[in-house]
Amino acid sequence: MEGIKVKLFRHSYREASDASRTVYARFELVYTFVDFMAALCFIVGSILFFFETEQIPATWFFLIGSFLFAAKPTLRLIREIKLYRMGDVKDLADRAK
């Protein structure tokens, strides 16, 4: 694959078509939801740590929040790969003509 450079995270991929704008918007909604839920888990976990009897649920909230925060870069990478491939398909179709 000499001569082909993989370049992710290009803003132009987001605006390439109606389909790419839809994909970008959907991923942004999921990303924001995950971000909000992670923050909520940490807030609930922090409150629960004020009560000695609630340390186990508090720890679970922190663990779940950590997994949600870890999911964020994964979602962003999946989105960018999908957008890149959508643009690449168009290029391939143009080359076939």
UniProtKB/TrEMBL annotation:
InterPro entries (alphabetical): YrhK_domain
Keyword entries, A-Z: Membrane, Transmembrane, Transmembrane helix
TM region positions: 29-51, 57-75
Domain YrhK: 26-81
Protein name per UniProt: YrhK-like protein
Organism this protein belongs to: Sulfitobacter marinus
Lineage: Bacteria, Pseudomonadati, Pseudomonadota, Alphaproteobacteria, Rhodobacterales
